Amino acid sequence: MPTLPAWPYPRTIAHRGAGRLAPENTLAAFRLGAAHGYRAFEFDVKLSRDGHSFLLHDDTLERTSNGHGPADALTLAELQRLDAGAWHSPAYAGETMPALATIAAYTRANDFCVNVEIKPMPGREAETGHAVARDVRRLWQGTRIPPLLSSFSEEALATAAQTAPALPRALLLDHLPEDWPARLRRLGCIALDANHDCLDADIIACAHANSFRVLCYTPNDPVRVKTLFSWGIDSVITDEVGLISPV
């Protein structure tokens, strides 16, 4: 039997905080996800103009704030003056874009697990992989369960591995190329983090046979989640924290 790496993370993980019920990647979203019983959170981290780690998914500011232009055109202080909540609903007007340190303080105080997606701006892959891994190592030092680093950028993930080799890593893939096990081995990953649409029981079994854990994004139908669990998936990352009970 293959030896699988330790997997201390909950089987259900809230996507970008509370996904759709609150403005994504904000402290309000984490609090709402926690209110629904979730104990693990996935979120996106990129670098500001002055090199600080902060939470944001997109490469531009328009969709989830009242800002405009590239996300890394502003300093952290300038980013935190933007309104990152009103786009979602009036109840969240004035919500700010959190620094990584803010999320570290909240999740550590509540003993929550985290999956940190390294989300570099184009051309800043290695720089972001290094900076985020360095910051995660420092901010979560001594925690009971280490953060899981993930990224679609193999360059960012490779640099993160050089900077903080002890932090566990997962490669994000929207589709599965034939050489996906070799890519995970090359990056020293413990897990495959794939689009749930490209997974089936055989792929999950193959991953486990190759000593990789498997998590996926973002199944939002409870029936689909049940099927994924029946196939042996280790964790699912979902938006629907109100529909899918935390496990």
Report on the structure:
With 247 residues, this protein is α/β, with parallel strands linked by helices. The protein has one domain (12-238): Phosphatidylinositol (PI) phosphodiesterase (TIM Barrel), CATH 3.20.20. Helices cover 30% and strands 18% of the residues. The protein has eight helices and nine strands. Strands 1-2-4-5-6-7-8-9 form an eight-stranded parallel β-barrel, surrounded by six helices. The mean pLDDT is 97. Residues 10-247 form the GP-PDE domain. This is Glycerophosphodiester phosphodiesterase. It comes from Candidatus Dactylopiibacterium carminicum.
Number of domains: 1
Average pLDDT score: 97
CATH domain class name: Alpha Beta
**Gyration radius, in Å:** 17 Å
List keywords for this structure.
247 residues, alpha/beta, TIM Barrel, eight-stranded parallel β-barrel, 8 helices, 30% helix, phosphoric diester hydrolase activity, Glycerophosphodiester phosphodiesterase, GP_PDE_dom, PLC-like_Pdiesterase_TIM-brl
Short description:
By secondary structure, the protein is of the alpha/beta class.
